[in-house]
Specification:
Layout lengths: L1 E10 L3 H8 L2 H7 L3 E8 L2 E10 L2 E15 L3 E9 L5 E13 L2 E13 L7 H22 L1
Antiparallel strand pairs: 1-7, 2-3, 3-4, 4-5, 5-6, 6-7
């Protein structure tokens, strides 16, 4: 099952500050819903463990996140994949773009993801609703961190 999600959020901080926080594993770990571990493994990659619940399915996903096409402080691409055991897998990417606007920073994103296994059997509507909720929660947490 594939899905695409786009959005934007206005942040009350300069673009350079937003950029720095988007690259800080301590900040990201605190902002990612269900994140139990986030460890930088090389200059542009992280190992992650996150516990998620989608409808009746709970799983602990273990995976890797890689940052590509870095364009400080304008944005980057995030590529990730994770295995959730019997629950299935998730993989995908996101393009993050930062622009100065209204005395702060406008963060825009476009996410494309694929899921498989038991999770994919739950239905597009439930998956999309959960994905939007998780994205909203991440960006609310991120905005508070600034």
């Amino acid at each position: 099952m594939a899905m695409t999600m786009t959005g934007e959020i206005q942040l009350a901080a300069p673009r350079e500050v937003v950029w720095a926080k988007l690259n800080d594993p301590v900040v990201l770990k605190a902002c990612i819903p269900g994140c139990e571990e986030l460890e930088q493994i090389d200059g542009q990659g992280f190992r992650a463990v996150a516990k998620m619940k989608v409808g009746p399915v709970s799983a602990r996903f273990k995976g890797k996140v890689t940052l590509t096409d870095l364009d400080p402080p304008n944005g980057y691409n995030i590529l990730g994949e994770g295995e959730g055991g019997i629950a299935g897998f998730a993989k995908g990417g996101a393009r993050i773009h930062l622009a100065e606007e209204d005395g702060g920073t406008l963060l825009s994103y476009r996410v494309e993801a694929q899921i498989g296994g038991k999770l994919a059997q739950l239905g597009q509507r439930l998956i999309n609703g959960t994905a939007k909720k998780l994205a909203d929660e991440f960006f609310a947490n991120f905005a508070r961190s600034l």
